[in-house]
Amino acid sequence: MQAEEIKLLIENAILGAEVTVQGEGDHFEATVVSEQFRDINLVKQHQMVYQALGDRFQNDLHALALHTYTPEQWARRIQ
After folding, report:
1. Which one-letter DSSP state was computed for residue 14?
2. Which of 39, 54, 58, 63 pairs as cysteine with 27 (C-beta 3.0–4.6 A)?
3. Strand order in 63-69's β-sheet?
4. What's the distance, CA 36 to chain centroid?
5. CATH number of the CATH domain containing 71
6. Residue 10: which domain range?
7. Is 71 left (phi over 0), alpha (psi -120 to 50) or beta?
């Protein structure tokens, strides 16, 4: 699985999300910024991303470091 493929899967499932994915082989790190994460706890945010990856997370990925933010949280983080 390639980083770009993971990125596209997440973007197709979480419309309007800004997604960056780094890594190779079966170890990746993803940052997902989405308005859809507003008022949703961190566990549910991560579940949304895992759902976007479906069976590929279990079969093709060994490790995914996941960081999720609302646009406001992301803006505060990078200031």
Report:
1. S
2. 63
3. 18-24, 27-33, 63-69
4. 12
5. 3.30.300.90
6. 3-78
7. alpha
Which candidate, 64, 5, 1, 61, places its Cα nearest to that of 30?
64
Q: Is the pTM of this model over 0.70?
A: yes
Placement of tokens 């949304």 in the chain = 48
Which pLDDT band holds residue 79 (cuts at 50, 70, 90)? low
Looking at the structure of the chain, the number of domains it has is 1
Q: Are strands 27-33 and 18-24 parallel, antiparallel or unpaired?
A: antiparallel
